[in-house]
Design brief:
Strand order of the largest sheet: 11-12-13-14-21-18-17-16
Structural class: alpha+beta
Signal peptide: 1-26
Shape: globular
Helix content: 25-40%
InterPro entries: DUF2264_N, UCP014753
Protein name: DUF2264 domain-containing protein
Keywords: Signal
Distance between the termini: 84 Å
Strand content: 15-25%
Domain DUF2264: 55-408
């Protein structure tokens, strides 16, 4: 029996050893896979591009790198651009949606391929001739016997995802006709025109979607086909009418990256390939609006050139930089192209060099890795290649000033570290704030959407409803137990935590961004909100105007937990005490000034886009109505990890009294 026990013990130890060995091997394989997923800038040019080393040639390499992943699924000309479905809310949800899924994969990867094919028509990927592949797949769209066949829009059919993708296809046909369109026979061209025009010459969504109709109608008019020119002009004029100034178009009703990678990019492309020679008056208006984006859109990116996580379709990532290359040709005289290229290259590397970005050789739906709260139901796995529009910049020749300007920090090189810089866009009411001390950018913008009216569930969610969005603190999803970051939450009548989402902008004055807000399920719960950006954070001086008692909570930005546990500490300055959390990269501090008790550290799981676990500083209060309302004031501060706190960090407390004048 003793021998048996020893034997069993030995086998148990051996099994544990083998298990540990296998786990270590699996971890090593995982690390190697992640390393393989990282794009390498070979032979960087730090003379031309001191920050990134990226030149036009490296952009070509990046486009090929991204396209190679897509073509790893292509072994014959008949293989569709259909990729593994990411678990969650994405489509296809039934077989009827599969042809559209294939259409998306085809037309969106073509954004990456078209500029490459224009320079290298003989390009091959995975042993497949790329130009031949896309021509073959385009013909499958009009072949009733093909599983990729797209049924023309019925006479009374409404707008659909097919319209979006055919609009994208029309852009690629415009920019590389010699390799995609011209080799087709007359019969093939006529059949493709009939299908695409059935969608283009039809209803649309009153947003950036109008440009999909515009590009379809414009391309076939350019090729000599009879098109509905009256509808084309109508959609153009309505798109112009959506302009609100300072570079921002209203996307019915939001302001987000679609204002730029949709309205602004499509406008300048359309003007370049078709508008200036056919509708010069409209084209000139669009170009004038395009020049305005230089006012504050570049400031929306951090000092190191990275984009912030904000708005729907964030999984398209570096599509955000797609207008910048064309600023050299159409942006006017006051454009700092070296700064814009630094932003563009840095944003591309922000994702191509992140180990979580690719999954199964295809970009995930999320921000860095897969992140379900940031995914919308209209997306499939191929949707992510919308980011490929950034590579349309490769249509510009090597001698274009966008490629020859030396990278620089733009206005960041002149910013003073002890100051904060705001750029307000009247009309859209977008506020972009730059923080030189830490190199972060931040945005405050529209949100006023009820959950009950938001059938697609994105405009009422964390994608839009935060008080602000930061380039260094990506937004955290809300938890079922009241975990909330950079927003207020209230216990509603169902005893559930409900966040603010119905904001009404009031004014921006003397550095203060002022809004009113009301709880969706109870109009008696309402706040008057004042955000005052500080050099090292935000001063909030909010007034609760509710006429009912309510349990309330306010969260700071959240910190993801990386290689070490998040540490908590305190720092006292005079009568005030800061509670601080530190994840080894950044520190966040909360300093209650009026109305609040002591902050608590709320640990969360599965809510943050950068790590499985995270922490957020929260403040709680039980509000009881008062005649004049009650003020709740707090400083929400930040520093890099390792930087020390001192009394100067809390010297802005005196601004509370000034801020009360905004009442």
């Amino acid at each position: 029996m003793k021998v048996l026990n020893i034997t069993v013990a030995f086998l148990a130890v051996l099994a544990l050893g083998l298990q540990s060995c296998n786990m270590q091997k699996a971890k090593t394989v995982e690390q190697e896979e992640k390393h393989d997923n990282i794009f390498e800038v070979k032979n960087p040019d730090y003379k031309l591009s001191p920050a990134t080393g990226m030149t036009r040639e490296h952009w070509v390499n990046a486009a090929e790198y991204l396209l190679q992943g897509a073509f790893s699924y292509i072994h014959t000309l008949d293989d569709a651009m259909k990729f593994p479905k990411q678990p969650g809310k994405t489509y296809p949800r039934d077989e009827k949606q599969v042809p559209t899924e294939k259409l998306e994969g085809l037309c969106r990867t073509l954004f990456v391929a078209a500029p490459l094919l224009k320079e290298n028509p003989g390009l091959k990927m995975n042993g497949i001739a790329v130009a031949e592949y896309y021509r073959h797949q385009i013909l499958n769209l009009i072949n009733p016997d093909s599983p990729s066949f797209i049924v023309p829009r019925p006479k009374n059919g409404g707008p659909s995802q097919n319209l979006v993708e055919f609009g994208a296809l029309a852009i690629s046909l415009f920019v590389a006709p010699e390799v995609i369109w011209e080799p087709l026979t007359r019969d093939q061209k006529d059949a493709l025109a009939a299908t695409m025009l059935s969608y283009g010459d039809g209803p649309t969504v009153p947003s950036n979607w109008r440009f999909f109709n515009i590009f379809v109608l414009s391309f076939f008019k350019d090729q000599g086909y009879d098109v509905n020119e009256k509808l084309l002009i109508e959609y153009l004029n309505k798109s112009v009418d959506q302009y609100r100034g300072y570079g921002w178009y209203n996307d019915a009703p939001a302001y987000d990256y679609y204002s730029m990678w949709a309205f602004q990019l499509y406008s300048v492309l359309w003007a370049d390939v078709f508008g200036l020679k056919n509708y010069p008056e409209i084209a000139e208006k669009l170009i004038s609006n395009f020049q305005d984006l230089n006012y504050n859109y570049p400031n929306m990116f951090s000092k190191d050139g990275k984009m912030l996580m904000y708005g729907r379709s964030i999984s398209y990532r570096f599509g955000s930089v797609s207008p910048f290359p064309f600023m050299g040709k159409y942006g006017g005289n006051d454009v700092n192209l070296g700064w814009l290229r630094k932003i563009s290259s840095s944003t591309i590397l922000q994702f191509l060099q992140h180990p979580e970005f690719l999954k199964d050789s295809v970009p995930s739906l999320g921000f860095y890795g897969a992140f379900e709260p940031a995914v919308q139901i209209y997306s499939c796995r191929g949707s992510v290649y919308w980011m490929g529009k950034a590579f349309l910049g490769l249509l510009l020749p090597e001698e274009d000033p966008f490629w020859t300007a030396v990278e620089n920090d733009g206005p960041w090189s002149e910013f003073e570290a002890d100051k904060v810089y705001n750029k307000f866009a009247e009309g859209s009411n977008v506020l972009i704030t730059d923080y030189p001390a830490i190199g972060a950018s931040e945005i405050r913008a529209w949100c006023h959407e009820k959950v009950k009216d938001d059938w697609q569930k994105f405009r009422s969610t964390e994608n839009y409803n935060k008080l602000s969005y930061s380039s260094i603190f990506p937004w955290q999803a809300d938890g079922e137990n009241g975990e909330v970051a950079m927003n207020y939450a209230f216990k509603n009548k169902e005893e559930k935590w409900e966040v603010l989402r119905l904001y009404t902008f009031k004014k921006f004055e003397d550095g203060a961004y002022i809004r009113d807000a009301v709880l969706e399920t109870n109009e008696n719960i309402k706040m008057s909100l004042v955000d005052i950006p500080l050099p090292n954070g935000i001063l909030r001086v909010d007034k609760n105007l509710s006429t009912e008692p309510v349990e309330m909570r306010l969260g700071h930005y959240a910190l993801p937990e990386f290689d070490q546990p998040i540490k908590t500490s305190t720092f006292k300055s005079g009568n005030y005490e800061a509670t601080i959390i530190d994840n080894g990269k950044y520190q966040l501090a909360m300093v209650p000034l009026k109305g609040w008790g002591k902050p608590t550290v709320v640990k969360t799981k599965g809510l943050h886009p950068e790590a499985p676990e995270s922490s957020v500083l929260s403040l709680d209060a039980n509000y009881v109505p008062a005649d004049q309302g009650q003020v709740f004031a707090v400083m929400m501060l930040w520093k890099r990890s390792g930087e020390k706190w001192d009394d100067m960090d809390f010297s802005r407390v005196s601004e509370i009294n000034r801020s009360l004048d905004f009442r």
